[in-house]
Amino acid sequence: MKVLVLGGTGYLGQFVVDHFLNAGDPVLFTHTKEVAPEITPNGAMCWGVLPAALRIDLTTEGGLGLLEERALQMGCGPDVVINCAAISQPRDCESDRDRAFAVNVPSRVTTWLTQRAAVDGRRPPLFIHLSTDQTYEGNKPFWHEDDPTNPVNTYGESKVAAERHLQESYPNHAILRSSIIYGPQPPLMPVGRTLPLAWMDGVLSSGQETSFFEDEFRNPVYVGDVVAAIAKLAESAEQDYPYPHRVFNLGGPERLSRVDMALAVARERGYSEQLVKPVPAASVSRGVVSPADISMNVERIQQELGISLTPFVTGVQKSF
């Protein structure tokens, strides 16, 4: 099974690339760095040709020709596409709305995939798209997939637009509305930003009291569970899609505040719980509206895909 990972050098993308390479699948992944990453995981050939990484600019279509060249070399396009590429920082999306939509709505890539599939004489490949819990408004707990989407910021709006694009223009898709993804350091290269647990560990290890929000709720999800869900969906890439639904909430099994998360890290790492200072989210100006409660009902993904979701305390233990 030929796998294309969009955003393969991001945090989640690296775990996805690593998983499929370890499974023996040929993998090609994209990035946006000025200089190509000097990594070819496990020395693997990707679609039979090196290098494994291609620079793709989703805002201008720059680099899509490289994907076409690789498809021509192999005689066909990918069997499955996993889209981890996004501008995922809400503040960045607010500061450049046009760029956020250009990157987060994958219309250029899906157009190429549709055209490539027509040339190959087969249906377009399964497109597994990472969306977000921020598609929900955030005014109640335990959002269900069938609840209306009503995002409160540009990031959420761009992700809703991406979902609608797939639903209207690219039928062979699956959408994962992910919560905060946490876990250990990525397997291939640094991502250039502080990860959630690493940040909490860093500030708590200083011994100084640190403020954490007590009134914003999410379902933080262990990165291994996200990869497991993607891998399960990918199993159906070369056959008819077997699941009743195409949109899945993907979060951990618990509704947690930042205070809850920080306390779990403090206990695991042996820091004083007194260092965790609960504060309301309104006490800090972040330059962007943030939903208060986007905890999700995650029964569908467990029942249909058979995914077992890792409790947060267990995930923290696995991460250090």
What report would you give on this structure?
Residues 1-318 form the RmlD-like substrate binding domain. The structure is a single chain. With 320 residues, the protein is α/β, with parallel strands linked by helices. It has one domain (3-194, 219-252, 297-303): NAD(P)-binding Rossmann-like Domain (Rossmann fold), CATH 3.40.50.720. 36% of the residues lie in helices and 15% in strands. The protein has 11 helices and 13 strands. Strands 3-2-1-4-5-6-11 form a 7-stranded parallel beta sheet, sandwiched between helices. Strands 7-10 form a two-stranded parallel sheet. Helix 1 (11-22) packs across helix 8 and helix 4 (97-104) packs parallel to helix 6. The longest helix has 16 residues, at 154-169.
Question: How would you summarize what this structure contains?
Answer:
Residues 1-318 form the RmlD-like substrate binding domain. The protein has 320 residues and is of the alpha/beta class.
